[in-house]
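Example 3.2
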Amino acid sequence: MSPLQRTLIEKTGHDNGFEHALPSAGDAVTLASARHRSQAAVTALADGFDVRVQPATPALLPELLRDFQPRAGTDGVFRVPTLADLAILLRRAASLSQALPNQAVRDYQTAVAQAVEALPAERRSTEVERLVRQRVGQERYRDALLTYWVGACAVTGVTVTEALRASHAKPWAECADDAERLDAFNGFLLVANLDALFDRFLISFDDTGHLLTSAHLSQSDLSGLGIHPGMTLRWLASEHRPYLQWHRERFLRGA
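Structure, written as C-alpha cells:
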C-alpha cells in the first residue's frame, strides 16, 4: 500500500465515523473510533478495497449485508470499488454501531448522568431523575431508529422526519431494563398514523413483516388512514421477533 493510499483511507475513515487509525502490521489500515467499539481493517487493491469489519455487536454484520456485497467466501469482509463506496460503508457501519445494542445503552447512561449533573442541586430528586431518564431515553431511541431505518418509515418509506415516530413494540414502562428500552429492535420507525395505531395495539405485524389490522377498524377508516392490504415492513430482523411477538399477543387480546 502506498503512502497516498494509506492517507486517503485514513481520511475517509476520519470523515465517516472512524476517526482513529490504529497501528497495524501488513498492508491493512485498521480504523477505530472513541464513539463505538467496532473496527474496520481496510486493504487497498487494484480494483478497490477490502473492508474486514470487526463488529462491536453481533447484529451489525447482518445489517450491513442488507446493503453491501461481501467478498465471496468470506465472513465479515466487504469489497467496495471506490473511495466513495468505502465512505458509504464506513458511515453506515459507524452509525449502526452507535445505534444498536449495547453501545446505545452506554451512551444513554452517560447522557443521563450528564443531564442530572447539570441540574441545580435543589432540583435533583428521584422523580426529576426519572423524568430526565425518560426524556433522554426517548430522544436516544428516536435517534437510533432514524439511524437504523435510514431516516424512512419502516413500512411506507416516507422520509419526512417531522412525520416519523419512534414506536416501541414493548412499551417503555413495561420494559425490564434500559437494554430493552433502548434496543433499536424493540419497535419501528413509523409515520404518525401507523405509530398511533401500533401504540394502541390496533395494528401489528406477523413474523414475515406483513401488516395486521384490528377488527375494530372499519374498511373506510383504514382507507382514510391510507392503510391497504399488502402493506409490509421494508425488512424484519430476527432480533425484532421476540418484541414483535409480545406486541402481537397484546394486539390479539384486543382483537
